[in-house]
Amino acid sequence: MKIFGREPALIAAFFAAVINLVAAFWVDLTADQQTYLNAVVAAVLGLIVAFTVGDGIQAAVLGFAQAALSLAVGFGLHMDATDQATLMSFAAIAVGMFVRTQVTAPAPAQDSPAGSRA
């Protein structure tokens, strides 16, 4: 899988270097903030790969949502753990509802005899 003709890991390494360069010379970022930015870059690349190959989209979207929330909190968003959990629960349900409409079973359902349980 390639993005812009490059492997996703190479792109992630490039952005990590750019983030370090920006933090060293232009913007005062803490080590934690640099970590949050790198996590979001990795999550975005994961989303791109998931959408390109068409597998694991739900996990990639939820991973991106978690990374974005971590980034926001790392940069000063005041949200307690309960609110974060509620937001992530909503994201999981919303993604699950979307994915449910997009997938089909690999084999047709089989009817069970009346009165029996599968």
From TrEMBL:
Give the domain of life: Bacteria
Keywords attached to this entry: Membrane, Transmembrane, Transmembrane helix
Spans through the membrane: 34-53, 60-79
UniProt-recorded name of the protein: Uncharacterized protein
Species of provenance: Paractinoplanes ferrugineus
